[in-house]
Design goal:
The protein is low in regular secondary structure and about 80 residues long. It has one domain. The protein is about 10% helix and about 10% strand. The strands form two sheets. The chain has a two-stranded antiparallel sheet with strand order 1-4. The longest helix is centred in the middle third of the chain and has 9 residues. It starts with 18 loop residues before the first strand and ends in an 11-residue tail after the last strand.
Length: about 80
């Protein structure tokens, strides 16, 4: 079985995210549930054995970046026609 490392799951950025997301709330009291790149991660292998082994070895369990809307984005929404 292949051994995965955190580096295997790092997503490279195209550049600095400078543009506000078009999903910004329209009203003052509304809140968008934006996801942070550095704080929101999900366990890749959530089996107890793997997580316990990582903790006992004093390493971070392997995680992947959580998907979802970001507050700032790379592409200019005014100039974009489609995005994935």
């Amino acid at each position: 079985m292949r051994r995965f490392r955190r580096e295997d799951f790092e997503i490279k950025n195209l550049g600095v995210a400078r543009h506000p997301s078009p999903l910004q709330p329209r009203r003052e009291e509304a809140r968008a549930n934006f996801v942070s790149d550095d704080r929101h991660r999900v366990l890749f292998d959530h089996s107890f054995e793997r997580v316990a082994a990582a903790i006992e070895g004093e390493t971070e369990p392997i995680t992947i970046e959580r998907s979802g809307p970001r507050q700032k984005i790379f592409f200019d929404p005014e100039k974009s026609r489609a995005a994935i």
